[in-house]
Amino acid sequence: MGSTNSTLLKIPNVEVLMQETGFSPAHIIRLHDRFKALDKEGRGHLCPQDFGAIKELAMNPIGDRIIGAFFSPGKETVDFDTFVKILAHFRPVDKDRPKELNSPEPINSRSNKLRFAFQLYDQDKDGKISRDELLQVLRAMLGMQVTEEQLESVADRTIQEADLDRDDAISFEEFRKSLEKINIDNLMSIRFLR
Amino acid sequence: MVLNFNQRSPFTFLMCLICTVSLGYGANVNVILEPTATSPSKLPPLSPMEETDPDPVETTQAVFTLDYPRIQIPFEITLWVLLASFAKIGFHVYHKITVWVPESCLLISIGLIVGGIMHSLHEKPPAVLTSNVFFLYMLPPIVLDSGYFMPTRPLFENFGTVLWFAVVGTLWNSIGIGISLFAICQIEAFGVQDITLQENLLFASIISAVEPVAVLTVFEDISIHEQLYIVVFGECLFNDAVTVVLYNLFNHVAALEVVEAGEVFLDIGRFFVVGLGGMIFGVLFGFVAAFTTRFTGKVREIEPLIIFLYSYLAYLIAELLAISSIMAIVICALTMKYYVEENVSQRSCTTIRHVIKMFGSVSETLIFFFLGVVTITTEHQWNWGYILFTLLFALLWRGLGILVLTQIINPFRTIPFNFKDQFCLAYGGLRGAVSFALAFTLPDSIGCKKLFITGTIVIIIFTVFIQGITLRPLLKLINVRKTNRNQETINSEIHKRLMEHTVAGIEDLCGQWSHYYWKDKFMKFNNRIIRKILIRDNRPESSIVALYKKLELQNAMEILDQMPGDISAAPSLISLHKERKNASKSRKKLLSSDVTNMHELLSKNMYKIRQRTVSYTNKHSLPNDITAREILMRRHTSLRRSLRAGSFHGTNASKMSHNYFSLPMGRSLNTGFPPGRLVHTGDGDTESEIDYPSIRRPRRVSSKAAMPLRPLNTLKEVASSVDTVDEQNEEQRGYRRSHLGSNVSRSGHLTSHLHHGSSRNYSEGDHDFEEQQSRLSPHAWVQEPQDNSDVQHPLMRRPHWLPQTPHDK
Q: Are residues A127 and A160 in the same domain?
């Protein structure tokens, strides 16, 4: 226990972090270790190359978007706080958490998870998934297996299914609505981050 | 009154038939029982015309003869199966019955009635239920049915849980019940002290095998959450294997006087050998079967046969080696299904499914039926104490087992099971066919065989009737979690896929992997190596695209179906188009025969889409499609609206054309359609088979080319001469048109879609058409002698492609 506590103390703002994200101390430590492992040069923050060095992630079709999600616009580096906060999106939802009225929504709420996913589509951050953005994602995910026309048709249909206000793009609300019956908690949660 | 009569007549008919059969059977048995007793010349009164004469020299020629013994066995089998089928038909006459009372109950009831009749005639039931007959003939179809229609994806996602419940759960149940019963036996009051521990364990293993039939039907009816569905389904399937292993184990052990510890270890080791061996065999046979179907392109008729033969072979060889045959056949079916369904023709696919369902259903029906019959006609040995306690313990241990096991496994699951789920699982533990058969095939060396049989029958009847009937209302009452699978949309599919990739990526980031990683790895391996070997034309098709195609086609069908009046969508669209073009020709350009052809075409094509996205299927019927009305409505309205608004940019019209992969025609319609397909090599370069009109000319100009339907002709072939179409292209146009509008409404602006050669992806349809060489250009429709100058937009012009020789696969 002693070593754990000392590691915890080395992390700045660890209390606040734990409260905001809901991670247990053990998780924080594990994530910290991982952070340090990724941060090969020991700078205390991560840059895109560090992420790129993860081989499997590089092969992921939307790997670059995921990496991009860690970096808020304008920033070139990711510090530990941001790292943990982003990962907190993937915690399974706490079913037994008492609902405090005035507290902000926890990071791993369904809505925030959806927002994270939405962000992966919406690279230009205009709040809508345009047809092109959708196409790009589809191409990345399916590119090898389908023809361009099929991609386009699928994209067309997707927009048509979801687009309620006929603006030819999917807003966050429409996105949310199209997924209302799906169990997001299950899909966007990583078990060992509980 | 007429209605009542109709409803009642099947019942009365049924009862008459039952009586006749039983009587007939009874009478026939008499015949058989005395074949050698009397001299051959003295046949019983059924052959009245035959003159019998003790003196063999003078026999008169018989005008009518009756040679029953010759056909006896097949005849009886047929009658029994027919009777069971009539029973099934009879149940569905009155719908409400099957909703409230599971079919298994009804079958057992009918069996009871028949048994009663036979008993009163002092006849014995056919001694068919020997070990061999059951295990070699009746069980494989049931298991194959379950295995083939098991939804693979949820299974693999929950594989750990399923195995956990199946293996550990069954062990827990067997050992628990066995030991408790042994404890009971020690109590003198019940008078069953002679039952040893081994025998108790044996009995316990028999009655811990759960049976999915009734449960799954109820689950589906109330659309339960698929996690529960798959756990029950999987558990039942795999615990058959475990039970049989345990049974053999305890059987073997029961014969021994003394059990040594070494034996126990050997047995445990054997258990693993059996289980894993079964799986390995299954996979092996699955691959071999898939490989074989790769070459059956020219002999479509035997494709279903191959599937059945290989599965059965897997089963038999596993039996030969005394490894788990049930596991072997299930895993074989699972493996096979994925690859085989891509290789075989659509008809074979349907045939396979139908036949598997048929055999499975017949087997099951027969077993339950026999259960009913046998209940009445066997001699029972009744022991109040023992049997009641058996019942009690069975229920108790199952409940406890589920509780404890769930607590242990919940932390490992992403969606933990709550108490309602656990109740479902526990209460849904009905016993059935396997228990019954195992009980019946107990060796006679067991002293209390009759007691065991009675006990098993009691448990089966109790669970099937009482639990089966009350399951549905209870589940509704406690409001168990429902599924959300019924709404299949492209959106959900795509977003789910995105999320999976995201989670996989994050997991890589965190350095810890769960099943997404393995799944990903496996899929890559699969695509790269396995599919190449096993599948005839490797066209990896994304499930998203498959779903998209399916949904589009459904919508198209519905549009056609729903249009009021006798005009289907196509002609009305066309007519609107014509209006717009200031043509004052008459409205109905489409002949009604064209419409019916289109309709036919559409309905045929509906089935051509591989049902990869259907998750679970009804136990007693084949998969159905689900339609999305909203999408339909929207398509419909956008279609009409766009036609009125009209700009026929139809940018995507051309694209849409190719996406109707399925324009494979029935034989009545045309000719070859280009089975062009997209061939991908492993490194990702796309070679598309593109048929250029410049290369070929369409075969004929059909008389039906009175389709002056002007194509929204956005494509201008570079060097094509515009050829007229034949019916095929007419159909294509028909489709295109229905989607044209929707495209148009969406693409408010031109985007440069025509960047590269469009390749189409036609489904392979019936490969018979491959032989038809004429690869008509799908763009042939474009050609209409009249030109459409108004649609000459530079962006619309097709770029110059290099003609590639379309290769044959």
A: yes
From chain A, the residues in CB contact with B498 under 8 A are 62, 117, 120-121, 137, 141
Segment A75-124, tens digit of pLDDT: 788 888 888 888 888 887 776 656 565 666 777 788 888 888 888 888 88
Residue B247 belongs to some domain of the structure: yes
| Residues B333-390 pLDDT 10s | 988 888 888 888 888 888 899 999 999 888 888 888 777 877 887 777 788 888 888 8
Residues in chain B closer than 8 A to A165 (CB atoms) = none
Same domain for A24 and A83?
yes
**Is B523 in the same domain as B463?**
no
What letter would DSSP give residue B619? T
Task: Decide which of A64, A89, A114 is a domain's last residue.
Answer: A89
Same structural domain, A84 and A109: no
Q: What is the pLDDT of residues A139-172, one digit of tens each?
A: 888 767 778 888 888 888 888 888 888 888 888 8
Chain A 13-52, CB below 8 Å of chain B: which residues? Answer: 31, 34, 37, 51
Partner residue opposite B655 with nearest CB, options A90, A149, A158? A149
Distance from CA of A141 to the nearest CA of B (A): 8
Contact B700, B780 (CB under 8 A): no
Tokens of A31: 């994530």
Task: Read off the amino acid at residue B365.
Answer: T
Instruction: Select from B484, B502, B746 the Cβ nearest to the Cβ of A160.
Output: B746
Helix (H/G/I), strand (E/B), else coil: B184: helix
Task: Tell whether B201 is covered by a domain.
Answer: yes
Cβ within 8 Å, pair B759-A146: no
Strand partners, B616: none
CATH classification of the domain holding A66: 1.10.238.10
Instruction: Note whether B505 contacts A60, CB cutoff 8 Å.
Output: yes
Structural domain of A85: 14-89
Q: Kindly state whether residues B388 and B272 are assigned to the same domain.
A: yes
The DSSP code sequence of B9-60 is: HHHHHHHHHHHHHHHHHHHHHHHHHSTTTS-TT---TT-TT----SSTT--P
Full-model pTM: 0.62
**What is the number of structural domains in chain B?**
2
pLDDT, one tens digit per residue, over B71-97 is 888 888 888 888 888 887 887 787 777
Domain match, B309 and B199 both: yes
Residues B315 and B362 in one domain: yes
Searching chain B, which residue's CA lies closest to the CA of residue A86? B506
The residues of chain B scoring below 70 in pLDDT are 1-59, 123-131, 188, 192, 214, 254-261, 483-487, 512-517, 537-542, 563-809
Do B289 and B410 lie in a common domain? yes
If phi > 0 it is left, if psi is from -120 to 50 it is alpha, else beta; for residue B647 that is: beta
